[in-house]
Every structure is written in structure tokens, then in C-alpha cells.
């Protein structure tokens, strides 16, 4: 504290101060008084502490601002997902029918969003109007989805099951006809005079990946006497080239309802999302024969054989075969090498430069993949939409219009004779991506812009050969 002495003459008081102070005269008659004033020393240490605290507070506020900005971006993403889910529900309300798988995927997405919103609420550690609103919307959508799923199960999926039963009954009726188009003794044999006619198309199903997967193939094991309950479906990637997945269904009913599938994914020891191009196929010329998948190996003229039981892969070069769209079919890219099978075994349909792009047929050994014999035709491959083999005879198709194909060309490997014919083949969609024949049921399997189609073939009797 400071002691202030004020010396004045006359009245003894501290005139310059806001308050009066009592004083006294000394022996010289001088008036003296003393005041106690506050300590005017600047508190630098306190100011330093204040600055440190202010700096900490500023940094904390900045962190919170960054968090809020991050939450805003996250919320924007969630709101976009919520908008997409809302649109999908609106489509459902307008009448589109979903499968059980669609609803399961939708519910998984909603659960994921709910979880993220809960995490966001916890991280904010307080009330936030936008987050609370988002959480309420998520709960409402979850309720609506459950209601729609219940509605769909009681209607669309029930109808699907009824259709499956009806289709099964129709198949039984066909088998039980008094005069079947092909006597049972024909099955698995060639005791007939060649292809006579083809039935109307029977639309089985859309492939499980949807409308965007327009290229691929499907069918059953075409080895004579093979298990016929199992159905395979192999959509190519949307580029129409890569075959890296095949789905197997244990029965026809499972195929209709997309139930109990087994996937064969060609990733070898790589992560799920990475394709192993050393075992990947390309084009829609794949086929299942004697429990193995045969296809054109990716980016090569090789034939790949993939065993469904052991996952073992074998490959063999198809000498002189052109590949990578050099001479593919007119309506299906990357199908330069087309595998086929019939009562006589395994075949490959392709082209060579030596044969000027015309179709070449080779008989393959199913075990060794060695070419046993080859036939060269005069039919230009790129003018053909697709082809298949029946009893050693090649049949080729061409487009008449968006709803009709024509089986117009044949080559008999037994007689080395080729010829023209005209059998009209109706189709559901415009483009034919693959055709494969199964000698076990005398059906033709078509992959038609993503749809799985079958046809019944009928044959001439030996006494009525043209």
C-alpha cells in the first residue's frame, strides 16, 4: 500500500480526493494527513492465466465448429439416403412388386441409417433438432416398410408362389399328354430325323441381379443323365463381358422364388471384391457339363473348365481361334468362343482367320479339352445371332424383327452337309445373348436381355424325314 502525504496551507483537507481525510498541524503549522490507497501494481500473472484460458477456449470452440461442419456433411449424406429410400417407397406405393430379398435389403439399409443417426446423437451429446427429426423419419420409414412387406407377402409373393405351383402343374400336364411331341425314348438319344419345330417361349424368371444385367447364360447340367434339379444362372457384368459369378439353385421352385442359392464367385484367394482374371470367363458362351463350368477364359483364346465340387480350374488353348470380339455373334459381344453340348458330348463353336470369320465347329474331349475333330462351315459368324448343337448338328439363328428369330442354317457333322431351313422362334425381348440345348429334356435355354426363357424342341420321326 502507498502512504500519501498531502501538505496544504489553510483548511486541512484533501481537496483533490473524492473523500475527506482528517489531518493535523505540525509544529511549523503545516497541515498533514495520510490516506491508504489501493495497490496500483498491474496484475500481469493473472492476465497471463486469462490469456491461456482464452486460448484453450478458442481452440475448443474451433474443434466444436469443425465437428458441427462434419456433422452437417454427414447429415446431408443421410438426408440424401433418406430421400432415396422415400422415392423407393413411393414406387412401391405406385404398384411395383418387390421380392422378399428387396425388402430384406431395404430393412438392412434402414437399420444402418438408424445406427448412424444414434451414433451421431451420442457424439453431439445433446439435443439437436435436425438429428431428432431425422431419427423420427427413420422410425416412420421402418414402420412403413414392415407394413408394405406384410402387404406384399399377402399379395405379390403369394401370387408368385401360386404361379410356381401352376407352372409345376403345367409341366406335369405336358409330361402326361397322351401324344407328347417327342417319345420318351428320344431323350438322351438321337433316334429322330432332326429338328422339326419349336414351341412358344416359356418365360421362367428375370435373373436375380435385375434388368441391368442383360448378358449371360443359364440352364441345367447338359451331360446326358446328369442331375436335373439344379439350375444355374450366370449373368455377366454390365459391360457384357466378364463372367465372375454363377448362382446355383437346388430346384426349379427355388429358382422361381430366388431361394436357397449357392454362389460360385471367381475370386480365388483374393478379397471378395477383387476379380481373379486367371479363372474368370468372358462372353455368354458358358455351359455346365458333367458338373463343371466351361467358358472362354478372360482375354485369351483359352477354354476354362471350373469344377463345381473342387473349384479346380483347367485351361487349354483353342488353337487359331479368334477372340476378344474379332468374330462374335451379331447380338452378343465377346462371344467369339461359344461352348455347347448335346447327346454326342462337348462342342465349341468359334471362328478363325483361316476360315475368313466363318463358323468352325470342334468336338472336344470333356476331360482333356483336346480338340478331337474340326469342321469348317461357309456360314459367316457375325451374321448369326447365336447357335446350338443337337445330335451333332449345328443350328444357327438370325433376327427377323424385335420379337422373332429364325433358325435358318444347319450343318451336320456326321454327313458334312450344310443347308437352309426356316423355323420361327418367338422371343420376349429383342436380343438373344445365349442359346444352349439340353439333351436330358429336349429344351432350348435362352438368355434374352436378362430374362430366362425355355423352348421345347420337337423332332421329325425317322420315317418322316424331309
From TrEMBL:
It is found in: Secreted. GO terms for cellular component: extracellular space. Residues 189-461 form the Olfactomedin-like domain. PROSITE patterns: OLF. GO terms for biological process: signal transduction. InterPro entries: Olfac-like_dom, Olfactomedin-like_domain. SMART domains: OLF. This is Olfactomedin-like domain-containing protein.
Amino acid at each position: 500500500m502507498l502512504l500519501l502525504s498531502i501538505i496544504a496551507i489553510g483548511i486541512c483537507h484533501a481537496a483533490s480526493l473524492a473523500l475527506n481525510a482528517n489531518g493535523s498541524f505540525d509544529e511549523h503549522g503545516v497541515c498533514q494527513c495520510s490516506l491508504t490507497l489501493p495497490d496500483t501494481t498491474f496484475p500481469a500473472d493473472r492476465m497471463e492465466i486469462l490469456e491461456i484460458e482464452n486460448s484453450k477456449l478458442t481452440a475448443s470452440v474451433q474443434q466444436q465448429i469443425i465437428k458441427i461442419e462434419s456433422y452437417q456433411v454427414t447429415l446431408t449424406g443421410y438426408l440424401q439416403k433418406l430421400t432415396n429410400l422415400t422415392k423407393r417407397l413411393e414406387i412401391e406405393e405406385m404398384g411395383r412388386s418387390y421380392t422378399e430379398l428387396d425388402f430384406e435389403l431395404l430393412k438392412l439399409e434402414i437399420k444402418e441409417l438408424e445406427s448412424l443417426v444414434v451414433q451421431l446423437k451420442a457424439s453431439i451429446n445433446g439435443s439437436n433438432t435436425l438429428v431428432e427429426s431425422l431419427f423420427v423419419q427413420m422410425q416412420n420409414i421402418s414402420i412403413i416398410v414392415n407394413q408394405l412387406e406384410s402387404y406384399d407377402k399377402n399379395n405379390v409373393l403369394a401370387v408368385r408362389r401360386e404361379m410356381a405351383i401352376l407352372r409345376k402343374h403345367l409341366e406335369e400336364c405336358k409330361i402326361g399328354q397322351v401324344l407328347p411331341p417327342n417319345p420318351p425314348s428320344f431323350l438322351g438319344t438321337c433316334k429322330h430325323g432332326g429338328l422339326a419345330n419349336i414351341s412358344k417361349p416359356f418365360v421362367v424368371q428375370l435373373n436375380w441381379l435385375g434388368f441391368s444385367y442383360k448378358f449371360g447364360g443359364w440352364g441345367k447340367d447338359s451331360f446326358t443323365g446328369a442331375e436335373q434339379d439344379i439350375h444355374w444362372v450366370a449373368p455377366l457384368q454390365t459391360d457384357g463381358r466378364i463372367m465372375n459369378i454363377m448362382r446355383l439353385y437346388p430346384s426349379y421352385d427355388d429358382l422361381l422364388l430366388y431361394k436357397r442359392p449357392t454362389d460360385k464367385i471367381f475370386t480365388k484367394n483374393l478379397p471378395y471384391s477383387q476379380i481373379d482374371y486367371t479363372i474368370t470367363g468372358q462372353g455368354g458362351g458358358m455351359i455346365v457339363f458333367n458338373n463343371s463350368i466351361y467358358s472362354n477364359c478372360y482375354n485369351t483364346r483359352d477354354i476354362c473348365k471350373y469344377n463345381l465340387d473342387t473349384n479346380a480350374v483347367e485351361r487349354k488353348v483353342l488353337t487359331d481361334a479368334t477372340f476378344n470380339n474379332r468374330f462374335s455373334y451379331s447380338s452378343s459381344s465377346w462371344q467369339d468362343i461359344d461352348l455347347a453340348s448335346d447327346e454326342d458330348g462337348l462342342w465349341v463353336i468359334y471362328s478363325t482367320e483361316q476360315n475368313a470369320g466363318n463358323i468352325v465347329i470342334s468336338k472336344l474331349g470333356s476331360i482333356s479339352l483336346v480338340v478331337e475333330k474340326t469342321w469348317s462351315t461357309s456360314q459367316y459368324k457375325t451374321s448369326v445371332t447365336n447357335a446350338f448343337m443337337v445330335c451333332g448338328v449345328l443350328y444357327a439363328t438370325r433376327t427377323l424383327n424385335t420379337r422373332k428369330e429364325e433358325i435358318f442354317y444347319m450343318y451336320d457333322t456326321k454327313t458334312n452337309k450344310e443347308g437352309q431351313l426356316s423355323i420361327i422362334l418367338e422371343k420376349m425381348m429383342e436380343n438373344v445373348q445365349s442359346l444352349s440345348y439340353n439333351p436330358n429334356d429336349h429344351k432350348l435355354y435362352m438368355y434374352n436381355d436378362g430374362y430366362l426363357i425355355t423352348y421345347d424342341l420337337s423332332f421329325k420321326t425317322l420315317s418322316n424325314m424331309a
